[in-house]
Amino acid sequence: MPKNDHYVIIGNGPAGNLAADTLRDSDPDARITIVSNESMTYYYRHKLTEFIKGKAREEDLTVRPYSVYKDKNIRLRLGQQVDKIDPNKKIIYLKHMETVSYTKLIIATGASPRALPSVSNFSKCLNVLSTYSDALAQIPMINKNKTFLVLGGDIISFKFIRMLKDMGKEVTTLLYSEAFWPFSLEADMAQQVKKSLSDKGVTVISDDHIKSVKKSGEAFDIVTEKGLNQSFDSVYSFLGMIPNIRFILGSGIDTDRGILVDDHLKTNFDDVYAAGDCAQIYNPDMKSYWLSIGWNNAKIQGTLAAQNLLGAHKVINPAPQKILEVEGLKINTSWWESF
Amino acid sequence: MSDIDIVVEICGSAGEGTISAGEILSRFMSEEGYDIMSFDSYPAEIRGFGKCVAHSRISRTRVLTPGKYSDVLIALNDSHSISQLPVLKEQGVLIYDNKPPKYHDEDKSIAGWLEPGMIPYGIPLNELAIKAAGNARGRNMVALGAFAALFGISQDAFIQSVKRRYGKKKQVVIDNNVDSFVEGFNWTRDNVRKIDFHLFDSSPSDVKRDQLIINGNEAVARGALAAGLHLYAGYPITPATKIMEILSKELPKKGGVFLQTEDEISSIGHVMGAGFAGKRAMTGTSGPGFCLMSEFTGLSVMAEVPAVIVNSQRGGPSTGLPTKHEQSDLNIALFGGSGDSPRVVIAPTSVDQCYQAAVLALYIAEKYQTLVILLIDFFLSNSIKNLDPPPPPDPRYLNANIAPGKDELKDYKRYQITENGISPRTIPGTPGGMFFSTGLEHDERGKPVYDTKTHTLMTEKRFRKHREILKEIPEPRITGWEGQGDIGVVSWGSSAGAAEEAVILACEKGLKVGSFSSMVLSPFPANALVRFCDRFKTILVPEMNYSGQFANMIAPIVTRPVMRLNMVTGLPMASEDILKKIKEIK
Amino acid sequence: MKNTDRYKKNLIVSTGKNKTYASESVKSIIYSTDPRDFGQVKKSIPCQDACPAHTNIPGYIRCIHEKRFGRAYELNRLANILPGVLGRICSRPCELYCRHGEPDLGKPVSICSLKRSAADFKSPMHRILEGLYSPSGKKVAVIGAGPAGLGAAHELSVLGHKAVIYEAFEKPGGMLMYGIPDFRLPRNVLMLEIENILRLGVELKTGVKVGTDVSLDSLLSDYDAVVIATGCTMPNRLGAPGEDLEHVYSGVRFMEQVNNGETPYVGKNVMVIGDGFTAMDCARSAVRLGAAEVKVNIRKTEEYMPIDDQEKHEVKFEKIRFYSLVDTKRIIGEKGKVTGIEFLRTKLEYSPNPPYRNAVPIENSEFILPADSVIVAIGQQPFPGEISGKIEQNGARILTRESGFSTSITGLFATGDCASGASNVITAIANGRKCAVDVDEFLIGRKRKIHVVRLESVDNTDRDRAYDFIKRTPMNTLDFDQRVSQRSNEVEKGYNEEQAAQESKRCYLCSLKYEIDTTACIYCSACIDVAPRDCIKMIQDVSMNPDGSFGHYTETRNWNNVSAIAIDNERCIRCGQCYEVCPMDCISVTKTERIELNIEE
Questions:
Q1: Which chains touch B (3 or more CB pairs under 8 A)?
Q2: Strand locations in C131-254, DSSP E?
Q3: Considering only CB atoms, which chain B residues are within 8 Å of A95?
Q4: Residue C14: pLDDT over 80
């Protein structure tokens, strides 16, 4: 490999880091850059609830400290967001108005909370918890507030609700039928979920929709379609996740719900690969496209994308037993097994 | 009440309003009752796109140095600011323009260089400035608005301060500045989530409106004016030019004479002429110009004509580093020129001392009919400090010439040998007071005489003045550990602030360390130094030159081992450096 | 404005071959036919060039900014006789080319919605301007009262001819009346603008079907000329089994029923096939007919759908889902009624000529989804009817002579979608109008109108740099409840006056041409320093395009090679910064407009 190769990886999660390691192992001289919009180095996202409770410290979240990046001679661009990509010129444009050129690119941007069009009118009043920065900013508010409304139904919401109950908060949850994610809840499963939440002391509302959320003073007034009218200290929404691909739209790289890649994780551009939660792959066994969710999949895909980028021809194995269907998409949920 | 002590750096390209933003911020903070010290740096070239840094330390407690590392970096220009990142602390805050009109090339954007822990706030400075005033000139004010919003500064109070500062400018200038500030403030308040922990007192209790915010050059000029300066002759040179600039405006208003001469030799010539004629006169220069004046310094001593030379040191030798700091002219100040030439060297250690030093210099020069060198440096010349307006000088400092009495005029001996070395001096034109004046060795009447006895007596007389002067100079400043200790830090000039700060920090850590500094270096209060040094095992002399000029000077005086901290970084001495050295010695 | 206190200057205005020096006292207006000026206008004002009707977009947006809504409306009518209609349902080809939408400059100006604002805020008894010609005594039959037919009839009337429209349906408007749902286009708006055409003396015969009620031959003999503008009414077929099952509709017929006030059965679970505006109209109508779940099935991905983002948002807001990368294999039914669709997954593949992405079905990827009804909206084509065989055709389309509208039969013209194939409303209107000019030349024997470029020197940039940072104003829309409670409720509410004023500021006014007088320039480069992008260039050489516009600038950074500092009007965003900063006042601003003049005046 010529020394002037510049591998750029967008995303500093498991896929991005494994990809970087793979590249570094086989190419000690190449320039490797990871671009991440997070303010923290590679960390365990699923420990954020523990972090908020105060049970885990920052060090406990960290998978890889900054020094490791320096040792591996990986340029880590933290807190930087990619605005757009020009795969023809091989340039990425960062939001703070800097261009970075690459010879090969791996996109591993993962997924982030989804905003449903039906709640878009009051999305400003809704909190989401997805990143370390979110957690950091919300800890004082969560500690202070007493009553919480959680819109949702996705599996992260259940984890969050459990955290709130552990912290002794009053929790009401409005189960959004559109938001069961990553899998649709069958009626009996929904009943089970409802019961299990009720047993924990959570007020569960189902078959209803939010009509409006209005800020009044420090609190939020909620009106639902069925006429519930109540005030909460804060409102959270967990309506599933969508791949972070907005910055790719219009670049010429094919996207659907995620970035469309072949079974080698290559996009429609030879020098651009995608791995992890943001990649959408067709699987002939399932006769469907699938998005993977979760840590182990991301690691496997990150490694594989890097290997293929370096010239291997490995085919991704979809591990079908862990895949569920949502909206016509199969979703692999290995990470969530522990829940 | 917050115990805030933070360093803010604004970095931009020449012409972007970097320095004036720093000044506005310093002025405001001073009015809010904070102690500030600022130190700006800018390119040597007069026009162009060089790097400017306005550096301010803002503290609730008295500050002695501008601080080496910054807590907040406001980047008005990315490529210049990148080179300023290494002095941003690990948890430092960066305010930068995240929406410049054009893309930066790879690695030319400051946001690309952030390290974990640093806290970036991207503000569309350019865009907001245009929104506020139609063009991008107000970016500096937008940045200040963002700063104010982030750090809990009251918008109204700041605007009032800006209005006072621009009071005499056109209304549109004031409006544009205020609008830009408000735009930056509001945008930041509405769009930025604060994640750092710095916060000012939004309604401080001890507001000070009448503070002076001046740099060392201004302090020297004000001091000289207060001390009745009548003539200033000079030739511009960085970093002393500002003294000239101020006096060119102020001196004529007071009936004085301001002259820009063709060179430095002419300047000192004019000063000597005025001194001879009985007027207080002064020139200002830097190292290269001081070299040219050397020949005249001897004449001042020999002919006993009062003269004051301000030497603001810069990096040398030769033209050297015009905009960099150094303390390497001590030797030439003390020993420059020919012969046994006793001269007075006053090296103030802070901006407020610059004022007193100028008063003292003109007083001593007149009273003792000799040469006084006011030795300041690039850092003092440019560091900005807030201080209470100094009271007018004691009247005895204003009229110090010792004139001959009636009896003495009957047989007037201009160079009469006296116990204190001072010969009563007539102003030319005084009836009966005519005399010879020459650079040749002379007898009491001023006639050239070269015999052994005369030269011996006259030399002794000239040196006797120093004994007298020693009685009049301010006490050396001694701080820190008061008993028997380990390390005594002996410093001079602008490094003394850093030394004192380092000693305070070391004492807080339980080290037995003391600090000694004297504003007057010649004649030097050697006894006080010896007493000080006797209390410590080791003496440390930190100074900003390579050869250890001050250490060399005191080493023969003290009976302790003298360690040296010599740096020629071009930057002011930092307390961190001294503290590190103290720990090493320990 | 910051530059009002500037000197009035003597401007140098290019008339092509010579330079005219206009003095301060005489307002300098020049009408140019120099091809270079046409070329310049074409390249400098990309929105106007992209508009099939060449609407003077900067002109009318500027009028809105000045609150001259009536004038803005009339500027529109010069090019397009249905501004209120197009302001709602135009497919907005202009906005794709708006300079504000270029990379890093934000989103395009809401040109379309501003057009609607002009229509909304003009005074209710607004005065219509028409440049009428004396009656010619000629009669022209127009077949079809759709946009093309209406456009042709209007222009024919203006030119002094008697136009008679034959319309098969009960009401005029064609697809506007029967294709587009009323929640997107209220019928009173449509009828008002049609009335404005009819009052010129256009005769409208509805419910008359040419070929059945009256023959084309008789029209040809009764009239001096005949214009066919019958549009595209034949739905394309999927070609898959099951297409004739009950509750499988074509998009066109489905909308026809809906727009006639009928309520076709949709059931709970509706599958729409197709990705265009018609498909969206069908899906959204289905929601209003009570469907619980509506899926729009598309072969490619959302990115490649030929509809704009606003429409996508509205569709999703109405809880309709896009189901991408699927191809219909067959429609499945039981007892003659539809029960589901068997799909194949598709993948995107590169197609080299022209470079495009194609959807290719993946083998063995069949799967079935249930459906209560299926609406196939995959395009339309002309319905040849009576003329089939009598006239030269290109497939189902009527073949017209190159660069014109005449057909193989003398006196018979064809325009609109029946000649061009399915396009959009604004193209149809533009073509109707152009066809009328062709007919006029046929009837009168000479050209009566020419196009010129009007150049007017101005001493003001008309804009603030701050306007460039205003964000695109989102459309005000109804809540979901209001949309479904009454299906004719118009979803888009239009801008209010303040929003329109704000949005109008965003237009760069690309019709202003910035030039540097290189004889006065001192090459201080102050303008380059303030330039917001690479719009001011130090050039060594510049080539000229065949159409007269400036071509490639050979730039240089070496001062010795600089032959001029030039403003690239294709990059210029008219921010006025250079004009403000120039110490020599050597930057001039000229307003350029492409206008139509009567050749005989």
A1: A, C
A2: 139-143, 162-167, 203-206, 225-228, 232-235, 248-250
A3: 98
A4: no
Give, in order, the Cα–Cα distances in Å from A128 to each of A112, A293, B353.
9, 18, 57
> What are the pLDDT digits (tens) for B528-565?
999 999 999 999 999 999 999 999 999 999 999 999 99
CATH topology of domain B477-585: Rossmann fold (3.40.50)
Instruction: Give the fold, CATH level 3, of A113-240.
Output: FAD/NAD(P)-binding domain (3.50.50)
B290-335 pLDDT tens trace:
999 999 999 999 999 999 999 999 999 999 998 899 999 999 999 9
Side-chain half-sphere CA neighbours of A29 within 13 A: 5
Is the model's pLDDT at B2 over the cut of 80? no
Contact criterion met (CB below 8 Å) for A15 and A276: yes
Q: Hey, what long-range contacts does C569-573 have (CB within 8 A, 24 or more apart)?
A: C569/C40, C569/C43, C569/C44, C569/C510, C569/C513, C569/C514, C570/C43, C570/C44, C570/C46, C571/C533, C571/C534, C571/C535, C572/C510, C572/C514, C572/C535, C573/C99, C573/C100, C573/C105, C573/C468, C573/C508, C573/C532, C573/C533, C573/C535
State pTM to two decimals: 0.82
pLDDT interval class at C481 (50, 70, 90): confident
Coil, helix or strand at residue A216? strand
Residues of chain B in contact with residue C533, where contact means CB-CB under 8 angstroms, are 101-102
Task: Decide if A328 and C348 are in contact by the 8 Å CB cutoff.
Answer: no
Tens digit of pLDDT for each residue in C69-85?
A: 999 999 999 999 999 99
- Paired with A62 in beta bridges are A43
Which residue in chain C has the smallest CA separation from B100?
Answer: C532
For the cut 90, the answer to whether the pLDDT of residue B276 exceeds it is yes
Distance of residue A69 Cα from the nearest chain C Cα, in angstroms? 32
Per-residue buried b or exposed e for A193-231, using 16+ beta carbons within 10 Å of the residue's own CB: bbeebeeeebebbeeeebbebeeeeebbebeeeeeeeee
Q: Which pLDDT does position B79 carry in this prediction?
A: 86
Instruction: Please tell me which of the candidates B108, B122, B195 has its beta carbon nearest to residue A137.
Output: B195
Residues of C in contact with A121 (CB under 8 A): 479
CATH 3.40.920.10 fits domain B5-209: yes
- Output the CATH code of domain A6-110+244-338: 3.50.50.60
Sorting pLDDT into bands at 50, 70 and 90, what band is A188?
A: low
Q: Chain C within 8 Å of B101 (Cβ-Cβ)? A: yes
pLDDT at B96 over 90: yes
| Cβ atoms A237, A112 nearer than 8 A | no
Instruction: Encode burial over C214-250: b for 16+ CB neighbours within 10 A, e otherwise.
Output: bebeebbeebbbbbbbbbbbbbbebeeebbebebbbb
Q: Please judge whether C464 and B134 are an interchain contact, meaning their C-beta atoms are less than 8 angstroms apart.
A: yes
CATH of domain C139-234+385-440: 3.50.50.60
Question: Whose CA is closest to A279, among A269, A263, A287?
Answer: A263
Please give the radius of gyration of chain A, using alpha carbons only, rounded to the nearest integer: 21
ipTM confidence score: 0.82
pLDDT interval class at B207 (50, 70, 90)? confident
Provide CATH code, domain B215-397. Answer: 3.40.50.970
Q: Could you tell me if B23 lies within 8 Å of chain C, comparing CB atoms?
A: no
Mutate to test the interface with C, among B104, B131, B191 (most CBs of C within 10 A): B131
- Which of C99, C87, C61, C28 shows the shortest CA–CA distance to C568? C99
Sign, CA torsion A47/A50/A54/A56: negative
Query: Closest residue of C to A250, CA-based?
Result: C303
The total of other beta-carbon atoms located within 10 Å of residue B311's CB is 26
Closest residue in chain C to residue A116, using alpha carbons only = C317
Nearest CA in chain C to B102: C533
